[in-house]
Design brief:
InterPro entries: ATP-NAD_kinase_N (IPR017438), Diacylglycerol/lipid_kinase (IPR005218), Diacylglycerol_kinase_cat_dom (IPR001206), Lipid_Phosphate_FormReg (IPR050187), NAD/diacylglycerol_kinase_sf (IPR016064), YegS/DAGK_C (IPR045540). The protein is α+β, with helices and mostly antiparallel strands. 31% of the residues lie in helices and 33% in strands. The protein has eleven helices and 17 strands. It binds adenosine-5'-triphosphate (ATP).
Length: 327
C-alpha cells in the first residue's frame, strides 16, 4: 500500500478537529495501518508540509487533509505541481463543503473507511481552478472562488470571534448567515465586466460572482447545483440587479439550489473567466482570502487524483462538453 500522510489542522472547527483526529488515530491503530502525521502550526503551514511530502521522493503517496475547507485548499496548493500525490479528506472544520460536494461522510471513522477502501481502487481525477491575480501571483481552488459580497462575508468570518462561539455551540454553519445579515444593509453593489471564454458580459449592480468546481459553498449552500468536478468546465453564478429584500429570498432558496430560477441569477459555464469591476472587490478561494479584483481564472482539467465517491465522467455518464453550447 502507498505511504499515508495526514496533515491535521488542530485549529479547524475551533479545535473540534483534534477530536476528529483522535478518532481517526484510534481506528488506524486498531487496524494496524502505518501512517505519518503532521500538525499545522500557523496559517499557510499545510502548503509547506504538503509540498515537502510530495517533493521528498518520487514515490506515489496519499496525503489526507484533516480539517476544514481552508486546510484542504492549502494542501491542494502545496501538491498541485507534483504528480505523485493522491489526496484524501477527513472533515474536521466548520463548513466542510469539500466533503459535501465530494461525498465524503461527516463521521471521522466512516470518512477514513471510505478513504482506505478507495486507496485500493482507482482515484477520481478531477479539475481544479487556477486564479491569477493582478500581480501575477497564482492560487488554485478545488471547491470555488468568489468576488464581491460572498468574499466580503468570507473575510469577515475568517477575522471574527463569532465563528469560535458558534462552533462551541455546534452552530458553526450559521456563521455565514450571521455575517450575511450583518453586512447586507451596508454593501454597495458594483458593475462587473465578466469575460467567459472570450465572451464579454457587463453586469450592473452585481452582488457577487462565484466560480465553482463543485456545487457547495459557504457551509452547505448549493450555489452551483449543476457543477461537477470532472466535467472540464467551471460553473459561474452571478447575482445582480436585485433588492436587499429579494437577495434574502434568493439566499434562502440557495440551500436547495433553487436560486437559479430567479431572473437576477445568471449562470454560465466556461473554461477561462476574467473578472474586472468598477471598484475593487474582495476575492476568496475555497473560503480563504486571496486579495482583490481584477483577476483571471483558468480551469486545469483532470489535474488532481482525489479519493472521493464522486465518480469519474465515465461513471456518471457525463460527456466532455463545449462551454458555448451550455451558456
Ligand atoms: N496552527 C494553526 N494556528 C492558527 N491557524 C491555523 C493553524 N493551522 C492552520 N490554520 C488556519 O486555520 C484556518 C481555518 O482552517 P479550516 O478552513 O481548515 O477550518 P475551518 O475554518 O474551521 O473550516 P471551514 O473552512 O470548512 O469552515 C486556515 O486559514 C488555516 O490557514
Amino acid at each position: 500500500m502507498k505511504q499515508i500522510y495526514f496533515i491535521i489542522n488542530p485549529k479547524a472547527g475551533n479545535g473540534y478537529c483534534l477530536n476528529v483526529w483522535g478518532k481517526v488515530e484510534t481506528k488506524l491503530m486498531e487496524d494496524k495501518i502505518p501512517y505519518f502525521a503532521f500538525f499545522t502550526e500557523y496559517p499557510g503551514h499545510a502548503i509547506k508540509l504538503a509540498s515537502q511530502i510530495a517533493a521528498s521522493n518520487h514515490e506515489p503517496k496519499v496525503v489526507i487533509a484533516v480539517g476544514g475547507d481552508g486546510t484542504m485548499h492549502e494542501v491542494v496548493n502545496g501538491i498541485v505541481e507534483y504528480n505523485n500525490i493522491t489526496l484524501g479528506f477527513v472533515p474536521g472544520g466548520s463548513g466542510n463543503d469539500f466533503s459535501r460536494g465530494f461525498h465524503i461522510p461527516s463521521e471521522p471513522e466512516e470518512a477514513l473507511s471510505v478513504i482506505l477502501h478507495l486507496i485500493k481502487k482507482e482515484a477520481a481525477i478531477i479539475d481544479i481552478g487556477e486564479v491569477t491575480m493582478k500581480d501575477d501571483s497564482q492560487a488554485y481552488f478545488i471547491n470555488n472562488m468568489g468576488a464581491g459580497f460572498d468574499a466580503l462575508i468570507s473575510y469577515e468570518v475568517n477575522h471574527s470571534k463569532v465563528k469560535a462561539w458558534l462552533n462551541k455551540l455546534s452552530l458553526g454553519r450559521l456563521v455565514y448567515v450571521y455575517f450575511l445579515l450583518k453586512k447586507l444593509f451596508s454593501y454597495n453593489c458594483t458593475t462587473i465586466d465578466l469575460s467567459i471564454d472570450g465572451r464579454r458580459h457587463i453586469l450592473e449592480k452585481t452582488w457577487f460572482v462565484t466560480v465553482s468546481n463543485q456545487p457547495y459553498y459557504g457551509g452547505g449552500m448549493m450555489i452551483a447545483p449543476k457543477a461537477h468536478p470532472a466535467d472540464g468546465l467551471l460553473d459561474i453564478t452571478v447575482v445582480h440587479n436585485l433588492s436587499k429584500l429579494k437577495l434574502l429570498l434568493v439566499f434562502i432558496s440557495v440551500f436547495w439550489g433553487k436560486h437559479i430560477q430567479f431572473k437576477e441569477v445568471k449562470t454560465f459555464k466556461g473554461r477561462t473567466v476574467s473578472i474586472q469591476s468598477s471598484s475593487s472587490l474582495y476575492v476568496h478561494a475555497d473560503g480563504e482570502n486571496l486579495g482583490y479584483t481584477p483577476l483571471n481564472i483558468h480551469i486545469q482539467t483532470k489535474t488532481l487524483k482525489v479519493l472521493t465517491r464522486v465518480g469519474s465522467m465515465r461513471e456518471t455518464g457525463l460527456k466532455e462538453r463545449d462551454s458555448n453550447e451550455l451558456q
